[in-house]
Amino acid sequence: MTEKFTREYARSLDAKDELRKYRDEFYLNNDGVYMDGNSLGLMSKRAEQSAFDLLNSWKKYGIDGWTEGEHPWYFLSESLGEKMSELVGAKKDEVIVTGSTTVNLHHLVSTFYQPEGKRTKILADSLTFPTDIYALKAQLKLKGYDDSHLVQVQSEDGQFLKEEDIIEAMTDEIALIVLPSVLYRSGQILDMKRLTEAAHERNIKIGFDLCHSVGSIPHELHEWDVDFAFWCTYKHLNGGPGSVAALYLNEKFFGVSPGLAGWFSSDKEKQFDMDHTLTPAQTAGAFQIGTPHVLSVAPLIGALELFHEAGIENVRKKSLQLTDYMMELIEHELKDDGIVICNPKNHEQRGGHVYVEHPEAARICKALKMQKVIPDFRTPSGIRLAPVALYNSFEDVYDCVQILKTIMEEKRYNQFENERNIVS
Ligand SMILES: *Cc1c(COP(=O)(O)O)cnc(C)c1O
């Protein structure tokens, strides 16, 4: 049985891996192990190519690039929204590529948070990513309410949320619910279908932040009847630093007046009429504001092709195999070193990364980086390791755990301060 914990075994898993060929599509640092694709996905050759293509269309066409060339800029946000819709289980015109995660959250909340009578509060959770909370508090303030109108469901253990607790907090004072699909630390998946049903039974609108699930797990947003969702494209989708984000708007809201309207909210046929009365697009496209950031959209053309070819179900299957394997290795090799696995063990609740804790986490991460293993540190004691289906191998996982083992056994982290870097 020791065979399982050898490099040969890792290689045998790689030999059977049906997504193996995609590894060559990416720029990997060959003598290192990248485990941070859940913070910033690596560059693919196709993403690089599509970025060059759009620079060239600017060079070649000037202003006419809006309508000429292989990827006319004027329709790009819509056509990429269509491509992305298969990753979130939406209809083609329910997704638009626009803005940033935080701006899209502001936009959706400014539209759907309509306090009325007793229903004045927003429901969120206590473990979500800070930008969501900052945006929700700012939206409350714009409508004349203070922070006491933000209800944050608490976690018993600081790692996980219970759907029962969230549902219990859906009182008749709640006007809107915004939750993450996957918690950014522990990697817990929330049951979006169940939560949406519970919210709708109580007449509350509900939206999800998909930053940590898009490109890593499949979704059925339309079938689950989710009202809205938003996500970034630079993590699991590999769109590059600051690549343009996306959002989902359930088709039942087509025609709604967008809270942060701009001329790109227009029906595309009417936009250049230059009328001072907005005719919003009858699609999710109404949630665009101004001119799209074409050069930051460009890499997504190539990046999304890879997902389309590989298939999100296959990505999910391999991702679970990788994280299963990583957890098995950690439990076998590192059980005496105080490294505790804190992500859900079952498949239904586990997102795309492994999350472990150790009191020396900050400097363990620095020691890993010195040995060219790239994790990310989450204060105060968390280490996230994300083996990514499209470009990480089982051998990468093996190397990562072996290097971590030497660092722990030889206490190589002692040479570093146990403090986070400015970006971690
Ligand atoms: C990464 C992340 C964000 C980032 O928002 P930006 O506007 O892209 O900076 C927001 N929410 C969650 C849950 C994230 O993981």
From TrEMBL:
Pfam families: KYNU_C. This is Kynureninase. InterPro entries: Kynureninase, PyrdxlP-dep_Trfase, PyrdxlP-dep_Trfase_major, PyrdxlP-dep_Trfase_small. It comes from Virgibacillus alimentarius. Homodimer. It catalyses: L-kynurenine + H2O = anthranilate + L-alanine + H(+); 3-hydroxy-L-kynurenine + H2O = 3-hydroxyanthranilate + L-alanine + H(+). Catalyzes the cleavage of L-kynurenine (L-Kyn) and L-3-hydroxykynurenine (L-3OHKyn) into anthranilic acid (AA) and 3-hydroxyanthranilic acid (3-OHAA), respectively. Keywords: Hydrolase, Pyridine nucleotide biosynthesis, Pyridoxal phosphate. Belongs to the kynureninase family. One of its GO terms (molecular function) is kynureninase activity. Its EC number is 3.7.1.3. Pyridoxal 5'-phosphate binds at residues 101-102, 129-132, 209, 212, 234, 263, 291. Its cofactor is pyridoxal 5'-phosphate. NCBIfam families: kynureninase (TIGR01814). The modification N6-(pyridoxal phosphate)lysine is found at residue 235. Pathway: Amino-acid degradation; L-kynurenine degradation; L-alanine and anthranilate from L-kynurenine: step 1/1; Cofactor biosynthesis; NAD(+) biosynthesis; quinolinate from L-kynurenine: step 2/3.
